[in-house]
Design a protein that fits this description.
Elements lengths: L1 E3 L5 E4 L2 H10 L3 E6 L6 E5 L1 H17 L6 E6 L5 H16 L3 E7 L8 H15 L3 E10 L2 E8 L1 H11 L5
Parallel strand pairs: 1-4, 5-6
Antiparallel strand pairs: 1-2, 3-4, 6-8, 7-8
């Protein structure tokens, strides 16, 4: 088998016994890296240190990963303008943080007959978020609720941020 040191230095092609002897002399482990090569490639390294560094890399990758959450904003068909504006403001914050927004219109009792009010409300909601978000899923009924999903639209978001920046000149 071909044996390589930790620094990448070639020791040449050795038998298994010679490779194990070289590993014990240096107080390292003999690890097979490429078993399908001809001859197989093995490396002399500290396996505990190698596993520790791998786990550190994985933790670092998890740390920098952003998990998208679904935030819900609930309305009723007769939600007033101030409440509507307040909830739109919250939805904008959620989208700018990188989360999805689930807009729900809840129908109680006989309000279910006024589904057109709910659609109109979600239409206004989508219009107010149109500069930073796009509709991921159109409004649909789920039992006594009308639900629509919105996600950040990166191109629209960049355009909105560019418009806010003062022009140099």
């Amino acid at each position: 088998m071909r044996v390589v040191t930790e620094e990448g230095e070639q020791l040449g092609i050795l038998t298994i016994a010679e490779a194990l002897k070289a590993a014990t002399e240096r107080t390292l482990d003999l690890i097979e890296i490429v078993p399908n090569a001809d001859p197989p490639v093995c490396k002399l390294m500290d396996f505990g240190k190698y596993r520790y560094e791998l786990s550190k890399k994985e933790k670092l990758q998890k740390k920098h990963q952003h998990v998208t959450q679904v935030k819900e904003v609930r309305f009723h068909p007769n939600t007033d303008t101030h409440d509507f504006e307040f909830k739109v403001r919250h939805a904008r914050e959620f989208i700018l943080e990188g989360n999805k927004v689930k807009a729900t219109v809840v129908f109680k009792g006989r309000q279910i007959t006024y589904q057109d009010h709910g659609r109109e409300l979600l239409g206004r909601f989508a219009e107010r978020l149109s500069d930073i978000a796009r509709n991921e899923q159109e409004a649909k009924m789920e039992g006594r609720q009308m639900v629509a999903y919105y996600v950040a639209d990166k191109t629209k978001k960049k355009n909105a941020e560019a418009a806010k920046q003062p022009k140099e000149g």
